[in-house]
Amino acid sequence: MQILQSINSAMPKLPSIQPAHWLIRIPIAGVILQQASFKFPLTALDAEANGLPFFLWALAAIGEVGAGLGLLIGGLLPGRVGDILTRVSAASIAIIVMGVIYVVYWAPLGDILIANQLHILLLVGALFLMLRGNETYKRPAKQEPASNDMPLEPAE
Q1: Closest residue by Cα to residue 118 from 27, 26, 21
Q2: Looking at residue 92, what is its pLDDT?
Q3: What is the mean pLDDT of each run of 10 residues along the chain (156 residues)?
Q4: Cβ neighbours, 10 Å, residue 128
Q5: Which terminus of the chain has fewer Cβ atoms in its 10 Å neighbourhood, N or C?
């Protein structure tokens, strides 16, 4: 508990770097778009080689393009629209990456963590952006010290 209080008291003293989300957003979108580019042109032979039906292969490829572009565009759009686009795109990336891990790289968890760091980083980065959206850290307002003249019990 003391550690959390120390962290919370230190947060307002740290500099706020507003565009820092791009340090996660650009690499994730870049890797996802690169992986999508390997799937085009869509062929049933490629889908079969990966053990997937063509519909699922095409859905993954189109989803990767849409999610990668959505992640970039969502960071540029202000307000609620950009926030929702970021969250939906990041959720799509997380689902696609979990599917890739399950279909292609399934192994005991320890083996996945040791041998498949790229997909784990993509998954965790996407989950971070999905949960965070476009929110920025807001410094808490200074609280006024509590006054001692207020009654502790409600008046009857």
Answers
A1: 27
A2: 96
A3: 71 65 92 93 90 91 96 90 94 93 78 82 93 69 58 56
A4: 14
A5: C
Collapsed DSSP state (helix, strand, coil) of residue 7: helix
The whole-angstrom separation of Cα 136 and Cα 17 is 9
Angle in degrees, 0-180, between the axes of helices 54-76 and 22-37, rounded to the nearest 10: 150
pLDDT of 141? 60
Question: 11 and 139 in contact (C-beta within 8 Å)?
Answer: yes
Percentages of the chain per state (helix, strand, coil), in multiples of 5: 70, 0, 30
Tokens found for residue 139: 């410094």
The amino acid occupying position 146 is A
Which among 134, 80, 101, 86 is positioned nearest to 35, based on CA atoms? 101
The DSSP line for 63-96 is HHHHHHHHHHHHHHS-HHHHHHHHHHHHHHHHHH
The DSSP secondary structure of 47-63, one letter per residue, reads HHHTT--HHHHHHHHHH
Predicted local confidence at residue 14, as pLDDT: 59
